[in-house]
Amino acid sequence: MQEDLDRILFDEATILRRLDELARDITAEYEGRDLTIVAILNGSLIFMADLLRRIPLPLQLDCLRVASYHGGTKTSGEVIFQQAALPDVAGRHVLILDDILDSGLTVAAIAEKLKSTGALSVKICVLLRKRKSRLRPIEADHVGFNIGDEFVVGYGLDYQERYRNLPCIGVLRKEKIVPA
Ligand code: IMP
Ligand code: MG
Question: Which of 31, 127, 128, 168 has a 20 to 30 Å separation from 17 between CA atoms?
Fold first, then answer.
């Protein structure tokens, strides 16, 4: 799989070192507050597992599955919630975890829904943030790494459901991307 990468952006050790810092910030921010983590599947799974084990707080975890990509490398512009019930976050502080902030549509739609269900606060943590203009005016409160506007895979991020289990994050070689 690694031979399909044009170049590696972050190896496993670099990612884990950054997670130590992110976890420290999040722990300090939510100490003494009722925290619910809402992780967006599938992309944030590996990030979530490594990050949460570094946060020594009595937090709760919920997962949400949404779809917006449908297999290409560009967002389809529509966010589809794939479960009937949203997590019950009334009276709780919510931190949404996602793999990457790209167009912003996914996280904006989820943040809006959770705010409307009585959460005390809703903040956003992403592992990666693409430097680009977004379709929705949304910013992340905690960011692992800023990257350029390139298609990346690994450490949970996929291209057509492949590469999620790569331990590093890298830019996929252009010839591996099937034109839409
Ligand atoms: P959005 O465009 O910010 O709504 O991002 C939607 C989803 O697209 C993200 O949660 C990722 O799963 C996926 N995505 C966006 N950019 C990339 C990328 O560079 N590689 C892999 N998946 C991506
Ligand atoms: Mg994806």
Answer: 31
